[in-house]
């Protein structure tokens, strides 16, 4: 399905910050961070430029708030790793499941995307993206350790590398279910690591 264009709704008085973040999330996912201008975000929100800059003084501030909002929303790959109602193995393999939402737009990992668009490792955006990816491997390490796998730190790095690689290839190829290939490899890695227990 192609994308549809709609006219921006009329400005409303309340919830400006939330509307800005929602507009930014949609635009960043559809066309990238660098290709999205602040004026476009304001129009899409819709808010005045004055309101936009009252909430976010710079585009970097907006991108940081967007990433923090994503991290706390439960809509990222990492969020499934902390679900207490799911067994550890299934939480790990959930990294490779087809994402929910708009299947016509395959987004990849927003943290990797942001780091690529803010390549300076000292920038706030790049640093935050790195923190989220390190948190991901810490969560997976804890889960494989809980399963009793051998060499949990090394295994966790292998698993998150598969997950990030699958997300990137899914985005490039436009195949939302591309993770099935990495999931099959992850199952082999887990089986081998569990076979050495005891």
List the main descriptive attributes of the protein structure presented here.
198 residues, mainly alpha, elongated
**Whole-number radius of gyration?**
19 Å
Q: What sort of overall outline do the alpha carbons produce when their principal axes are compared?
A: elongated
Instruction: Give the helix level as a range of percent.
Output: 55-70%
Q: How many β-strands, per DSSP?
A: 0
Describe the main β-sheet briefly: none
What's the helix count? 9
* Terminal CA distance: 51 Å
Which segments are poorly predicted (pLDDT under 50) over 5 or more consecutive residues?
A: 1-13
Provide the succession of SSEs: HHHHHHHHH
Strand content: under 5%
Return the structural class. mainly alpha
Mean pLDDT: 88
How do the helices and strands line up, and which of them pair or pack?
Elements: H1 16-31, H2 38-44, H3 49-55, H4 59-73, H5 88-93, H6 110-117, H7 124-147, H8 152-173, H9 179-195
Describe this structure in words.
With 198 residues, this protein is mainly α. It is 62% helix and 0% strand. It contains 9 helices and no strands. The protein has helices at residues 16-31, 38-44, 49-55, 59-73, 88-93, 110-117, 124-147, 152-173, 179-195. The N and C termini lie far apart (51 Å). The model is unreliable at 1-13 (pLDDT under 50).
Give a short synopsis of this structure:
By secondary structure, the chain is mainly α. 62% of the residues lie in helices and 0% in strands.
